[in-house]
Amino acid sequence: MHRRVLLLVGIMAASACRIGLQGTLLENQAPETYLIVDTIIRSGNDRLSAQVQIHWWGNDPDGYIIGYEFTTGGDAQGTVEWHFTSKQDSTFLLTIPPGADSVDVPFRIRAIDHLGLADPTPAQLTFPIKNSPPTVQFRYAENNPLKSFPVLRFYWEGSDPDGVQDLLRYELCWNDTLALPYSVPATTTSAVFEAVDPKAMLTDCRVYYNNITVAAAELMPGLITGDTNVLYVRAVDQAEAQSPWMAAKPVLVKRPLSDVLIVDGYISNGNTVTAFYRDQLNAIGIAEADTLQLFEKIGNTYTQQSADYFTQAKVFALFQRIIWFTNDAARSLSIGQRCLNDFFNANGRLLMSVYVSSLFDEQSDFLDFTPLSNFIVPSDTTLLLTDTSMIFSLKPGFPDLQSSAYVGVVRPFELVPGAEPLYKAELIAKDNSNLTLSLWQGPSVVMASKANSAGQTHFIFSTLELHRLNGLGNMHIFFDHVFNTLFDW
């Protein structure tokens, strides 16, 4: 019995090997594609926005789906461009022709099977869409100058109900919305406007987009110096729909009257100190000087400080000589460190008079650009200046000076290599443990200078405020030597 069964199985196997598989091979069947919705009927203001979300799926009777191809229409010649996706839903920004308010956009989707065969009858849905106009508004930070020399930065933010990708550009103009607008890319959210001729009444501007430090090729006209200016902006979308014009806060754009700038770095009440410097300049024949109140505030907003360091640097670079006085060493030196490179690179010369309080952080890097390497801070000792202390000249041409005020904290300093000491002070040392006073015998340099690569003096730094050193009434001699000799190149 077992022998018969084995024989029969062997015969059947041999027979199968001879004839193979038999029958007719069926052709690959195309997949079918479906949309969640097959009809949308909307009209007038009830039309959809240009940004729509679409869902689809597909079936294949004899295989499987590897993806889909979609199109939103063809060109004027009837050419259709299909785009592949492996997703079954996506958000689309449907295109509205420029100048059109609404349009019916056909959307077609076709499934692709594992052999690359596309559904010959794509699923189709027509979207009745209406363009939504964009909007834009200005943004403001702590530095929002109400007065500025003719270099200004503005920030804005645009939006579009159809998605920010629907924004095409922004258009800008100074003071007159009927003027030909200046266009910037839709990716621009701020710009710096720098006067080409800062001393002209009406000037073009160089425009710097965002944080780009190279100006755009095209100039923007319309900035008025010596008067209040308003910057206008509007957003334009892909369909050329425009937002209403938005006006920035007005800014008084000051026309530089001289090549000398007095920077008032006082937190408040710096007017009398400014008057002292004006008097000294007048005494040596410099009749005109511009002023900048760096830390003046209205509420929580700085009114004259530029919106950022890049802009502030360009403001300083408008001048050849700067006098900078301050009773806030940390903030003034921080701004100077970041904003004076352009000024020095353009052969600028700086006289800086700084009161350094006991709260100043000696470990800060704000001194890196100065002639100082570090302050002298003796342990448990405060260095003082009386109202009759002498400040002795260390270089020819500089007169001896005398204090006219009591100064409760004085910071002498050591110098960086190449810097030159100009004055040392007659200081009093107060022992903070027993409050006894004695004449200070240690380093007492309180003013020094620094030269540029050509050996020309371009920076004089004092840790004694100059307006407190006119006890002998000879400060005009000091200014004459600085401005008409050392800075006259």
Please summarize what this structure is:
With 489 residues, this protein is mainly beta.
Main attributes of the structure:
nine-stranded mixed beta sheet, Immunoglobulin-like, elongated, disordered N terminus, 3 domains, 489 residues, 14% helix, mainly beta, five-stranded antiparallel beta sheet, Rossmann fold
Q: Give the integer mean of the pLDDT values.
A: 90
Identify the CATH homologous superfamily of the largest domain. Class I glutamine amidotransferase (GATase) domain
Beta-strand proportion: 35-45%
Structural class determined from secondary elements: mainly beta
CATH fold-type name of the largest domain: Rossmann fold
Indicate the radius of gyration in whole angstroms: 38 Å
* Secondary structure: helix percent: 10-25%
Q: Which second-level CATH architecture of the largest domain applies?
A: 3-Layer(aba) Sandwich
Span between N and C termini?
125 Å
- Strand order across the largest sheet: 21-20-24-25-35-34-31-28-29
Number of extended strands: 35
Number of helices: 6
What does the largest sheet look like?
A: 9 strands, mixed
- Shape from CA axes? elongated
**How many structurally independent domains?**
3
Unreliable segments of 5+ consecutive residues: 1-18
Question: Describe it for me?
Answer:
The structure is a single chain. With 489 residues, this protein is mostly beta strands. It has three domains: 32-130, Immunoglobulin-like (Sandwich), CATH 2.60.40.10; 135-253, Immunoglobulin-like, CATH 2.60.40.10; 260-486, Class I glutamine amidotransferase (GATase) domain (Rossmann fold, 3-Layer(aba) Sandwich). It is built from six helices and 35 strands. The strands form nine sheets. The chain has a nine-stranded mixed beta sheet with strand order 21-20-24-25-35-34-31-28-29, covered by helices on one side. Strand 32 and strand 33 form a beta hairpin. The chain is elongated, with a radius of gyration of 38 Å. The N and C termini lie far apart (125 Å).
